[in-house]
Design a protein that fits this description.
Elements lengths: L1 E5 L3 H13 L3 E5 L2 H10 L4 E4 L8 H10 L6 E5 L4 H9 L4 E4 L4 H15 L6 E4 L2 E4 L4 E4 L2 E4 L2 H11 L8 H8 L10 H13 L5 E3 L3 E3 L4
Helix pairs in contact: 2-3
Bound molecules: calcium ion.
Calcium ion binds next to loops.
């Protein structure tokens, strides 16, 4: 799962990046409003964490502009401002939730999960694609009586596929979803992950579409 973090405070930023990475997420961290807007326009994020007090453009400005352009990425505002006016303003401008600093990583992660679920229109944390069921909280994949907790990258890959069963993702789309900016990606990294998942759950857990990419089967 790819997350955009917009935070100009180095200490908070490093703490959040470290915590989310160890939870298996891929985090792109930008430190000003201009880069934040550019990244959101580029897309591909399951969620954005947005600080309000930023150099370049204020978080409110960023939010207003990206929502005006029809960009629907869920946005969780993280800020030290805790005035009611700021909260109301943020939510009115299209933020999905609000978390006041200082916060605990556990709460941040729980709210992120809730937002992602809500956006997908689901009440539970299980994603189903054909015979496969992926639990987004425990990272367990179940199929044909086999249940295993997936390591971080395998989970990110399966999540990308089962979010929309039947949709084909190319190698570069998958890489984009599971690796952050500037991370070295071996040319066969996706194949290695798919091989590892198939070894546990059988060949049909992920389908090849020749010349196009891979998909999670719908049935
Ligand atoms: Ca700030």
């Amino acid at each position: 799962m790819r997350v955009l973090l917009v935070e100009d405070d180095a200490m908070i930023g490093e703490g959040v990046v470290c915590g989310l990475k160890s939870a298996g997420m891929s985090v792109d961290w930008v430190r000003d409003g201009v880069q934040a807007e550019a990244a959101l326009r580029e897309g591909g994020y399951a969620i954005a964490l947005l600080d309000l007090g930023l150099p370049g453009a204020d978080g409110f400005e960023v939010l207003k502009r990206v929502r005006a352009k029809g960009i629907e990425t869920p946005v969780l505002v993280i800020t030290a401002r805790d005035g009611v006016d700021d909260r109301v303003n943020g939510l009115d401008l299209g933020a999905d939730d609000y978390l006041v600093k200082p916060f605990e990583l556990r709460e941040l992660q729980a709210r992120m999960r809730a937002l992602i679920r809500r956006r997908a229109g689901r009440a539970t944390s299980a994603l189903i694609a054909g015979a496969s069921e992926l639990n987004t909280e425990t990272h367990e994949l179940s199929r044909d009586g086999v249940t295993e907790v997936l390591p971080a990258r395998e989970f990110a890959l399966m999540l990308a596929l089962v979010e929309r069963p039947g949709r084909i993702l190319s190698r570069s789309q998958i890489e984009e979803r599971i690796y952050g900016w500037g991370e070295e990606v071996e040319s066969n990294a996706v194949d290695v992950l798919i091989h590892a998942i198939r070894r546990k759950f059988g060949k049909d857990v992920i389908l090849n579409v020749r010349g196009a990419g891979w998909m999670a089967p719908k049935s």
